[in-house]
TrEMBL record, chain A:
Keyword set, alphabetical order: FAD, Flavoprotein, Oxidoreductase
This protein's name: Carbon-monoxide dehydrogenase medium subunit
Record GO terms (molecular function): FAD binding; oxidoreductase activity
One matching Pfam family: CO_deh_flav_C
Keyword set includes Protease: no
InterPro entries to which the protein is assigned, alphabetical: CO_DH_flav_C, CO_DH_flav_C_dom_sf, Diverse_Substr_Oxidored, FAD-bd_PCMH, FAD-bd_PCMH-like_sf, FAD-bd_PCMH_sub1, FAD-bd_PCMH_sub2, Mopterin_DH_FAD-bd
Domain FAD-binding PCMH-type: 1-177
Matching PROSITE patterns: FAD_PCMH
Automatic annotation (TrEMBL), chain B:
InterPro entries with a match to the protein in the record: 2Fe-2S-bd (IPR002888), 2Fe-2S-bd_dom_sf (IPR036884), 2Fe-2S_ferredoxin-like_sf (IPR036010), 2Fe-2S_ferredoxin-type (IPR001041), Beta-grasp_dom_sf (IPR012675), Diverse_Oxidoreductases (IPR051452)
UniProt KW Heme keyword: no
UniProt name for this protein: Carbon-monoxide dehydrogenase small subunit
PANTHER family: OXIDOREDUCTASE WITH IRON-SULFUR SUBUNIT
Organism of origin: Streptosporangium canum
A Gene Ontology molecular function term of the record: 2 iron, 2 sulfur cluster binding
Pathway recorded for this protein: Alkaloid degradation; nicotine degradation
Keyword Glycoprotein belongs to the record: no
Stretch forming the signal peptide: none
Every 2Fe-2S ferredoxin-type domain range: 3-79
Record key words, sorted: 2Fe-2S, Iron, Iron-sulfur, Metal-binding, Oxidoreductase
Length: 289, 159
């Protein structure tokens, strides 16, 4: 099918984009990589009156490793972030997750920030932002605000970005010392959205005992489900940690729904298995760190 | 309201007047008459509409023509040498029976052309990852994978 008609705007600066978006209000939508929005338009699941194309705003095509974390501009495509050695060194989870996002050809166009704003419950990057406690920077004419991940994903395909606002960048904090991360997922076909997936972070103290362990789960709720399992793991070295009880704690916190791809029980089962695997992987990385 | 755009398609400067909602795939096929680019699903899943945008493979069904105004596009029609001699990737697909009905082939050829340019000697795993976003309902993929390795061989022999 073909997209419904809309008024097309191609601003040449961020200032112009903000003015156009403010003018369009509820009828406006941002077009970034188009890898989620255009399918929705083609299937007539969305019909914005005005489309504001940010693809000419090279000032948003930025990727900076700052002292506290990685800041990804709104026009930085998945592929660029995935291939950056600097990012891989500073925040490996971002690259680990990006390799699971769709196919390489989709990653050539899709943007990291677009994926966060789109807030698909099966998407990897919202889980990464939630797990790391990152934030998204939103702008409108004369005002900029940073929204922490905890308040950003507000529901199924819903984020805190309001009509008229442009997400200009996202910030992924660095890991504390002696910590590791991992992302594990199961999809029907390589590159598909995951049936279930778990991002994990494990931190150790100077005696190499677990002091922090948490996971963010995808596809088991309307938004990423963040679970702190530090208690359940016990304050022990990874070799003797109680991963099984941590996995049960994760399962108890998830309320997956059944659909054509999997039953709710199967999703809960997968989430438990993946949580154990991801936590073990993350702990191994922390020991090597 | 139509918007005037200029694209360089297969090295030729082309102009078109299109509405904002015109997909690049439809612009190529209907406005510019280049029907080599195929359209299967229009939601990014099948890969048969894949073209090269400034050298990088992208889904033309998930790109608006107006967004790529001023950019460079290569379609399957542009892969052969100017005299019409098939490219190494095209020859390898023909030689290894990497196609049957040919519907998926334009997308595979564009994807693989970029893949081998960036990675002239891919491993089996890299080939599978590289073509994982393209569907083929005929071949069962085995001969497509063979074609990719064969194309790499031909390119190495001829360089
Ligand atoms: C076949 C296929 C498979 C896929 N598989 C996966 C997968 O496994 N995992 C996954 O995570 N994703 C997957 N995706 C989606 C892909 O990652 C998208 O690129 C991403 O979700 C959206 O990014 P985009 O830049 O393309 O955004 P767009 O499609 O341009 O926009 C998406 C939404 O976000 C809004 N938006 C975008 N940018 C901004 C901004 N800067 N400010 C305000 N609003 C904005 C838009 O208005 C729109 O509502 C898949 C896509 C396809 C086609
Ligand atoms: S037609 Fe574009 S991916 Fe199927
Ligand atoms: S050859 Fe027929 S779909 Fe691939």
């Amino acid at each position: 099918m073909k997209p419904p008609p809309f008024d097309y705007h191609a601003p040449r600066s961020v200032g112009e984009a903000l003015e156009t978006l403010a003018g369009a209000g509820e009828h406006g939508k941002v077009l970034a990589g188009g890898q989620s929005l255009i399918p929705m338009l083609n299937m007539r699941l969305a019909a914005p009156g005005h489309l504001v194309d940010i693809n000419r705003l090279t000032e948003l095509d930025t990727l900076d490793v700052e002292p506290g974390g990685v800041r990804v501009g709104a026009l930085a495509r998945h592929a660029r972030v995935e291939r950056s050695e600097e990012v891989a060194a500073a925040q490996p989870l971002l690259c680990q997750a990006l390799r699971l996002v769709a196919h390489p050809v989709i990653r050539n166009r899709g943007t990291v920030v677009g994926s966060l704003v789109h807030a698909d419950p099966a998407a990897e990057l919202p889980a990464v932002l939630a797990l790391l406690g990152g934030s998204v920077r939103l702008a409108r004419p004369g005002a900029v605000r940073d929204v922490p991940a905890a308040g950003f994903f507000t529901g199924l395909l819903e984020s805190a970005a309001e009509p008229g606002e442009l997400a200009v960048s996202a910030f992924f904090p660095l890991l504390p010392p002696r910590s590791g991360t991992a992302f594990r997922e199961v999809a029907r076909r390589h590159g598909d959205y995951a049936l279930a997936g778990v991002a994990a972070l494990v931190g150790l103290d100077d005696d190499l005992r677990i002091t922090a362990a948490r996971v963010a789960c995808v596809s088991v709720g309307p938004a990423p489900v963040l679970v702190d399992v530090t208690e359940a793991c016990g304050h022990r070295p990874p070799a003797s940690a109680d991963w099984a009880s941590a996995a049960r704690a994760v399962q108890e916190r998830t309320a997956p729904e059944a659909d054509i791809h999997a039953t709710a029980d199967y999703r809960r089962h997968l989430t438990g298995v993946l949580a154990q695997q991801a936590l073990r992987d993350a702990a191994r990385e922390a020991l090597d760190a | 309201m139509n918007i005037a755009i200029t694209l360089t398609v297969n090295g030729v400067v082309r102009q078109a007047e299109v509405p904002g909602r015109r997909l690049l795939s439809d612009c190529l096929r209907h406005d510019l008459g280049l029907t080599g680019t195929h359209v299967g699903c229009e939601h990014g899943v099948c890969g048969c509409c894949t073209v090269l945008l400034d050298g990088e493979p992208v889904r033309s069904c998930l790109t608006f023509a107006v967004t790529v105004d001023g950019h460079d596009i290569t379609t399957v029609e542009g892969l052969a040498a100017p005299g019409g001699a098939m490219s190494p990737v095209q020859r390898a697909f023909a030689e290894c029976h990497g196609l049957q009905c040919g519907f998926c082939t334009p997308g595979f050829l564009c994807t693989v052309t970029a893949l081998l340019r960036d990675n002239p000697a891919p491993s089996e795993e890299e080939v599978l990852e590289g073509i994982s976003g393209n569907l083929c309902r005929c071949t069962g993929y085995q001969n497509i994978v063979k074609s990719v390795h064969r194309a790499a061989e031909i390119m190495a022999e001829e360089s």
